[in-house]
Amino acid sequence: MTGTTGTLVLAGTPIGDVADAPPRLAAELETADIVAAEDTRRLRRLTQALGIHTTGRVVSYFEGNESARTPELVEALTGGARVLLVTDAGMPSVSDPGYRLVAAAVEKDIKVTAVPGPSAVLTALALSALPVDRFCFEGFLPRKAGERLGRLREVADERRTMVFFEAPHRLDDTLAAMAEVFGADRRAAVCRELTKTYEEVKRGPLGDLAVWAAEGVRGEITVVVEGAADSGPEELDAEELVRRVRVREEAGERRKEAIAAVAADAGLPKREVFDAVVAAKNAERTGPAEGKGRS
Predict the structure, then answer these.
(1) CA pair distance 260, 274, nearest whole angstrom
(2) Rounded to whole angstroms, how far apart are CA atoms 86 and 22?
(3) Buried (b) or exposed (e) across 204-233, using 16+ Cβ within 10 A?
(4) Which tens digit of pLDDT belongs to each residue from 75-123?
(5) What CA–CA distance (Å, rounded) separates 167 from 169?
(6) Taking every pair of C-alpha atoms in the chain, what is the biggest distance, in angstroms?
(7) How many other C-beta atoms are found inside a 10 Å radius of the C-beta of residue 66?
(8) Is this structure's pTM higher than 0.90?
(9) What order of strands is seen across the sheet that includes strand 57-60?
(10) Burial class (CB in 10 A: 0-12, 13-18, 19+), 70
């Protein structure tokens, strides 16, 4: 370590075949002052497969201790350490531990860089045979059925191809929910065990895939779903416009941006959506009073 601020390195690890590991990953593993690993046992198997040895301190960094361990790693970075962050497979921070540490390091003006690696998202997109010119990553859906349906309804009108991660034991329920919300005929692809020995890509309508998955599926799963068809500007009433604005506000958008986005999606002037929101707000304020006057 030096007397200057150190560097945080996010390292992508193979999602299956160890031969996909880039040479720089091996070099970083051998020279880092600290290696923070989601699973130290998997890290040991990876280094053995690569024929290398870590010379720095190895610590665990996973969902259960991420909050507590972040300050410790930031302190080491501030003291000049080169900290390498690796997860079980794929890229740190993408549905894996890492976001908290990156945010904390950036706040302290610590350099953050990356060793690019294989990506389940991009690999699944390429193999899906679905449009890839525009896509969005939705990560893992909520585990509870009601919350899962709610999340899917939020993206039911998304026209970009969507990518989801899912646990194998929840895949049948998720595909059934997608068929219910998106329609049983919406095209999709289930990518299983990518780059591994038993790699499989199952393509077809969501309804058919849900039936297939009901028999049981194993392995790491990535689901790619075709976006909604562009049927032109929708005929939406004021109540629906207000609902869509509120969904976006609850997701963290400012009202001005939410109104602009809803107007653009619906092919309407921003003023029309703004007036609908104002009218709804006024109705909420005056409704109870008017009700008392009529009773």
Answers:
(1) 9
(2) 14
(3) ebbbbbbbbbeeebeebbbbbbbbbeeeee
(4) 999 999 999 999 988 888 877 788 899 999 999 999 999 998 778 898 8
(5) 6
(6) 82
(7) 18
(8) no
(9) 57-60, 34-37, 82-86, 7-11, 111-115
(10) buried
